[in-house]
TrEMBL record:
Transmembrane segments: none annotated. Pfam families: LRR_9. This is Leucine rich repeat containing 72. Residues 1-21 are annotated as: Disordered. PROSITE patterns: LRR. PANTHER family: LEUCINE-RICH REPEAT-CONTAINING PROTEIN 72. SUPFAM superfamilies: L domain-like.
Amino acid sequence: MTWDPNHRPRSSRLSSSPARAPGRALEISQRAIEDQLKICGHKRDVDVFELFLSQKELTDVIDLSRFRKLKYLWLHHNKLHEITFLTRNYCLTELYLNNNAIIEIKGLHYLPSLHILLLHHNELTNIDATVKELKGMLNLKTLSLYQNPFCQYNLYRLYIIYHLPGVELLDRNQVTEKERRSMITIFNHKKAHIVQSIAFRGKADASWNPRSPFKQKQANTVPKGFVLGNNVDKIVFDDPEDAVFVRSMKRSVMTFTSLNWNTVPKREEKYLEDKGTKPAQMLTITLR
């Protein structure tokens, strides 16, 4: 076997090929951006408000921080794996990243103004990391995450609603009040317990089990055929004192205010130097 001066070990050949791939990918994205700028007629970066870079076979994108006023960015139907090119685009409000191969979304927390985010049809597997990255987006209202691996989690939708309460449209479906109540019962047992106790006028019970919530006790009512003094149905109380209290709370409140003559100093006391006099006080009586 003769020695070949051009022969390189297998390991060196494999390590050199990935080094060229990122540079090539960045050149492709640079060319795509320049083409878009020519089509739109933009000569200054500050004039760029939107970029349409979908279906360009992009695997990576150059840093877009030069476009400080960029508001709309279309990158769907590409081959992106991560998002590291949006570090100073604070004005971005709509971002379309669906139909890619994204495995993590680190870098999105730099976008506080984001209002619409589409991430469906990707390869996101860590739902906790995804939620953590999106928690700081207080303006996020529309979010799509369906057709990702973590969507197989049976409580995925309620989990997202619980951790991102500002989202109003999730996976093309409006977030309902019923879903918001359900996610509190499932993911925040303590808060659900308090809500239950307040709703049913009861004290919080430490032994309450969220899987078997207690039910409101039905009030005993007089049959509809039974006629009372004012010809309306009344609630029958087990304790007469409760009935008296409820009736008293429906009465009007009367308030009387007068001068408390016990605090008014006498004529002799006004001129006594060794005894300090206090101002007269008002007396208020409230009756119901």
